[in-house]
Amino acid sequence: MGSQCGDLILIILDRHFGPNVKKVAQKLLYGPKPLKLLYHDIDLKLAQVKEALHILIKHSLVSFMKTKNGLTAEYKLVYDNIINILSYSKYLQLTENKHGSVAKDIVYDLMTNGYSNVSHLILRIAKQSPSQDNINLSPIRDTVVKLIQAGYLTRLCDINSLSDDHQVPNIFVDEAEKGLEPKIDMKLLYECLEHKDNNLVVDHVVFVLNWDRFERFDGGRKCAKY
Q1: N or C end: fewer C-beta atoms under 10 angstroms in the chain?
Q2: Where are the beta strands (DSSP E) in 38-193?
Q3: What is the CB-side half-sphere exposure of residue 145 using CA atoms within 13 A?
Q4: How do residues 182-212 score in pLDDT, each as one tens digit?
Q5: Which has the closest alpha carbon to 112: 196, 20, 217, 17?
């Protein structure tokens, strides 16, 4: 990777996620590393390194794979997704122009919070309503489904499918399943609003923003690799 692109990546991560994420990313700039090597010679506690990795994974800015022994994971920066952060405002404007303000709010939520199940996503958007009386969840649900059908949201995994037998989770979704609509229990979501308790709903299917789809807006930004 060129030094200028590496510097840009660190600036982006520092501004959006803080110095701890930047420090961990700096260790990953020139190749994948397991947690043990990330923690070596870094001015952070182990819990802080893990939290930084969690943030990067939630936002699809790091991928991970098994090491040769199959017992630990190696983490690798996803450079293009980090560079895409520079286009967030453009993507939001284009989303609103094409799909409306609710779609913009949904995309912004996932940009801010990272991956999410659809049930909690709908509830978070609903709670942004100026009036909390008689909230109609159907337009939010319909917009989420529309974004999934259009490919802007994609299924990451079903948490229930992850085996406890493996030290490193194998996150894989068949291509045909990525655009499947999730099952949404609207009655239960209204109960969550009524009781102000999101934990009443259990939803194990996780969705993320599909940056490949967003890049078609403007051709995307790519980080030169050397």
Answers
A1: C
A2: 62-66, 73-77, 116-117, 153-158
A3: 10
A4: 899 999 999 999 988 988 888 889 999 999 9
A5: 17
Angle at 64 between CA 59 and CA 66, to 5 degrees: 160
Sign of the Cα pseudo-torsion (10, 14, 16, 21, in order):
positive
What are residue 19's phi and psi, to 5 degrees? -65, -30
pLDDT at 93: 96
Q: How far apart are CA 22 and CA 26, in angstroms?
A: 6
3-77 CATH fold? Arc Repressor Mutant, subunit A (1.10.10)
Q: How far apart are the first and last CA of the chain?
A: 5
Q: Do domains 3-77 and 87-218 have the same CATH topology?
A: yes
Cα separation of 111 and 167, whole Å? 28
Give the pair of three-digit tokens for residue 38: 């990330």
Picking from 18, 106, 31, 36, the residue whose alpha carbon sits closest to that of residue 62 is: 31
Taking the complete model, does pTM exceed 0.85, yes or no?
A: yes
Class of domain 87-218: mainly alpha
Residue ranges of domains in the chain: 3-77, 87-218
User: Considering only CA atoms, which of 94, 96, 81, 75 is closest in space to residue 28?
Assistant: 75
Helix-helix angle 101-113:88-99, to 10 degrees: 150
Q: Which helix (H) or strand (E) holds 107?
A: helix 101-113
Distance, in Å, from the CA atom of 106 to the CA atom of 34, rounded to the nearest integer, reads 33
Distance CA 24, CA 64 (A): 14
